[in-house]
């Protein structure tokens, strides 16, 4: 049983591919929920999932999606299915910037300079400044935000480590300015 939830049919990723898989594997059941029409899948109780898959407690289960959805799914499975849920979270716990860090970020390809705090990911700094920065981080496409460091160093917000040499690729979603920084965006 595969449950795929998104805002609308037009926003549905891999729509044709899921149809092909269901055709190839008669034992595969798919359910698509379009939240703009049907509302979100409610995992605060087992009612919605029970209606889709009555034997869900006995199955291996996998989930990925927004943090709030995963939190609800985890709580439901812990409460009613002794765990048994494997998840992939597309977010990271940030340790926070180093005291006194931050600085002027130069987006060399955009000819733009912005002051940034030491606890704000460079991806957010770029987006707030209107810089077209590559990313797939929020969709689970890790490392899509890798950007060449032209100058300066960055703080890894997961560990607090300050690092970087010109030419290094930095993950802008988990890196903050550790002093003046130049990026090739």
TrEMBL record:
Its cofactor is FAD. The lineage of its organism: Bacteria, Bacillati, Actinomycetota, Actinomycetes, Micrococcales. PROSITE patterns: 2FE2S_FER_2. SUPFAM superfamilies: 2Fe-2S ferredoxin-like, Ferredoxin reductase-like, C-terminal NADP-linked domain. It comes from the Bacteria. Pfam families: Fer2 (PF00111). Keywords: 2Fe-2S, FAD, Flavoprotein, Iron, Iron-sulfur, Metal-binding, Oxidoreductase. It comes from Micrococcus cohnii. The keyword Oxidoreductase applies. Residues 103-185 form the 2Fe-2S ferredoxin-type domain. This is Ferredoxin. Transmembrane segments: none annotated. One of its GO terms (molecular function) is oxidoreductase activity.
């Amino acid at each position: 049983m595969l449950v795929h939830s998104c805002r609308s049919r037009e926003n549905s990723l891999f729509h044709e591919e899921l149809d092909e898989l269901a055709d190839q594997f008669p034992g595969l059941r798919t359910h698509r929920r379009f939240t703009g029409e049907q509302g979100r899948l409610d995992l605060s109780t087992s009612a919605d999932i029970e209606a889709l898959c009555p034997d869900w407690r006995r199955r291996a289960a996998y989930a990925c999606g927004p943090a709030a959805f995963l939190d609800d799914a985890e709580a439901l499975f812990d409460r009613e299915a002794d765990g048994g849920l494997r998840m992939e979270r597309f977010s990271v716990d940030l340790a926070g910037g180093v005291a006194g860090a931050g600085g002027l970020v130069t987006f060399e390809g955009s000819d733009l300079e912005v002051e940034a705090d030491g606890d704000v990911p460079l991806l957010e700094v770029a987006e707030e400044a209107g810089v077209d920065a590559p990313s797939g981080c929020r969709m689970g496409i890790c490392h899509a935000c890798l950007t060449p460091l032209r100058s300066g160093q960055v703080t890894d917000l997961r560990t607090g480590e300050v690092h970087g040499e010109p030419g290094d690729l930095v993950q802008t979603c988990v890196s903050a300015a550790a002093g003046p920084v130049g990026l090739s965006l």
